[in-house]
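Practice problem: predict the structure.
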Amino acid sequence: MIDLSLDHVGLVVAKLEPALEQLSAQLGLEWLPTFDGALSMHQDGVGTRDVHLRIAVSVQRPRLEVIETVPDSPWALDGTDALLHHVAYYADDLRGESRRLAGVCPIEICGVDADGTRPTIFTYHHILGGFRFELLQNRTS
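Answer:
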């Protein structure tokens, strides 16, 4: 079952720090420590690989997740300074819900465990001709 309480909205930006400064100044947002590291992911047509991400998440809820652009990935920007990227929800059964949705909303990219098990942590699905939604592994799973 998908918990329809919005967890966060994802935004992709060209440069992380200037975007965070603007969002703080204009909206009064505060930020949790920035994630700066690689995550193992699988993408059909590309395969499994480590992707280096820089992500900041707001303290305030629902959270705003700000991701620095990554060329040749789902987080690539195409000539814009920012892009509304996705909305995210938790799923009690990430694997089951992802499989259920994959027929009508294909999985674009998903997390992979060290042993190659997928999906783990998250999946991105497309709906409405390209809008993304993210399913997150429930914190209690």
